[in-house]
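Shapes recur. Our protein:

. . .
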Amino acid sequence: MAEEPLPPHLGLFSEPPPLYTNYNEKINNATTLEKVFTYGPDVVLEYPETSTTGRVGHLFFMKNARSWYNPMGNFAYSLGPPKGQKKNGVTCFLLKDGSGFVVPCKSSHATCQGVKLCFYADPALLQPHTKASRADVARTLAGQQAERDEHASARATLQQKTLAYFVVLQREGCGAPLYEPTIYVGAELDERERQLEVRERIRRGHASKATCEGRLLFMCEHYNRRGNIDHFFDYSPSRGLYDCAYLEALFAEDEDIVAEIEEDALYYSGTGPLAKCKSVANNSSIKVNCTVEHRDEQGRLIVAEMQKSSCTCRFVMYEPLEAYRDACPWILVVCGGAHAHPAPLPTKTPPSLRADIFQLLYSLQYDLPDLTPRRLLRHPSALAFLHKRLPHLENPTFVDLHSSLANRDHIRAYILQVQREVFPEGTGWAGLAHLKQQAELNRVVEDAYIRYMMELPPDSVASRGENDEDDDPAVPFRIIVCQHREASEHLLRAKFVQSDISFRRVAGFLELEVGGMNADSRTMLGYSRILLNRQTAAAHTFAFKLIDFFVQQDTGQALQWRHIHGNTLRDEVGILQFAMDQHGGQALGLGEYLQSLVQSPEFTEKRDLHEPHRLLRHLDPYEHLRRIGRLCTAHVFRNIQKVKLKPEAEHVRVLMKSLVCLTHKDWDGTIARIQSEGGKAGADWINDKIRSKFALPAICWAKSFIPEAIWKIGDNTTNNIEALHADVNREGVSCTLVGGVKKSEHLDMLKLKTLTNWSSTGIRSSYMRGHVSESIETSVKRRANQRHRILGKADAKITTHNERLQKASAAKHKADLRVRELSYLQNPNAQQLGRAVAAAQRADSAYTKAVEASAEMVGSGSGKVPLLLPSSHTSVQ
């Protein structure tokens, strides 16, 4: 018969039945055991039975010497002093080899440490026990829950909430920065010191920041709405969230009213600070104070400290010396004495399972730096681990492995322990510096990914004013360059390059990514990633210089640019075009980098290809951009749609879009029309483009110096780099610095290896052929589908407006007819006629609004759905 699967709530480590039980077993000349339970291999026993009259033995079978483990590590009881061990000269009659001879042993002993109980705990909780199980724990918890349910009431819950609010205010205080002095004297000072002592105990040694010490009564005494509003102020009591009578009595220290309310709570629901406490926690718990408020002998409201109960139950473990473990694969644990406390909760994860979880965490590699309990629970590796351990469950979770793993903080502690071991310097700036140092020691130079990491003074990349904003001028400049050697080789051969900044992948850093389309394979590739915390022009200039430096270091050649390194207008040398958005710092930084290149001696007398009367070294940064830069039209069109034009100026959007062109018939006239007919919004849009100093030449070929053929085949959007951003963001966003770098390293190497594999085997990353016709076809279909969706929505909107107009017209006609009918009567009822006239006026107003709404739809839609309008308006068919 097949073994019955374990109930999910019990987990993999449920109470194991012994193989058999013996009685009155002698283990040495002085000790005889009342019982000996014998267990099979890999058994996890959490609640070993003991005895008040003698001792009970638990004999565990070990598979072999290599799979040896300490069964006491699985006990739910916390073990500690008095404890000790004896390493030789120990004899145990139950530990024999295959020939029946007793083997030499060693022994160790420890004592149960009890549990933690509230100082005001109900004495009934201290019932001794010699046997326990998870079922007993479940019954105890169910009984306590039933008792709470029996006395539960909205009134009791409100009073508990009110008391908790008062206690928190008293303990935590105002919370504002310490500024104004507050004087306490006498009994008030004593009470203040007592509260500070409780607060310090709750922090368990963690440093506290100095905060306002003002007295609270719904607001801090130092609060002033005219000039001191950063102090505590809370409207929630006035919004009916608490029992105001109870709260007022607590603040006023009205002992009579407080006593009456709390005695009623004790009598009717068994709750409140006068009730007996049932708070129990395991000895290993970090809990310092009881979660329930109590009143001490003087009637003061206190947060009682949890106290450890005493227990004399003793555990002794006998095991063979290492040389005899193969001959005698058994361990005996002897328990004696009753536990004078409640059975502890099964919060201890068995060591064998804990070791497996740690092994799982180590295997997560680049996901480990940013790992949280929630991410672990849904991680594919964790799910595979669970399915392998629990194949009989359809949707296994960590709770199915062991009940202790239901505690997310428990799992977080494991994650933090592994993170501290793998990343001893953390996952921030110091952690990445350590990672870079280890990589330099253990990797060959060719495999380097983190190429540069530096912190510079704030003024080293200071803003230069217009088009160069700086959000954090006082922050030291930090920059990290991540660039594979193979990526440098691809960048050196690239003709069309794009760059963009991502704001959300790495917490506290911006990510400047430079990438493009590999012309041969038609696949997108990131060449370099720059993580930085400032985006001024100087920061971008420094970043572009570093990229060029590492390209030269990796390939032996510096980056080349068409307008700088070419000798004629027909030469297509190096990078032909650089696409970007309108970020002022990025554009100016690229221009300054290009300007710095031509200051070298080799370009001293070289003339510009497009303006031969000028020397290259005399070009300013924006003049360099005019020869190489292209503005992303997707960004331009998107921003045009965001311009807040008046309804009568909607045609100006078409004028704005017309500036994105090869040539324009009336460039200056169109700019003037946008400024005059577009109102302030139109003028601001033009001024923004003029102020950037590069945007207008970057959207119209006739205004730039990029050759026509290059303009036509070059990237008119930054979609490629946006797609690369989206690709790496799928690995995770808001990452730590170490996590973000490790994830991008994995992805970048994957792309490079895929590209290398294609070049050597012809196998692509997808079934697409990689021909330019495929991308054109996709683009055409996408635009057509997008247009059809827009027109379809407009047609649906026209249909809705037609229906509303027809209903409004019918209602108006009906109302007018009613007025005429009443008017034709010889003696019309004045009251009825007045109501009819008012209804006709309302119907006429609704009809007018419906006509106006329909009129706004003129010119929209596909033309297949006619727009209904009265003859006085333009009809649309």
In short: Residues 1-11 have pLDDT under 50 and may be disordered. The radius of gyration is 39 Å. Residues 201 and 740 are 38 Å apart (CA to CA). Residues 430-632+717-761 form one domain.
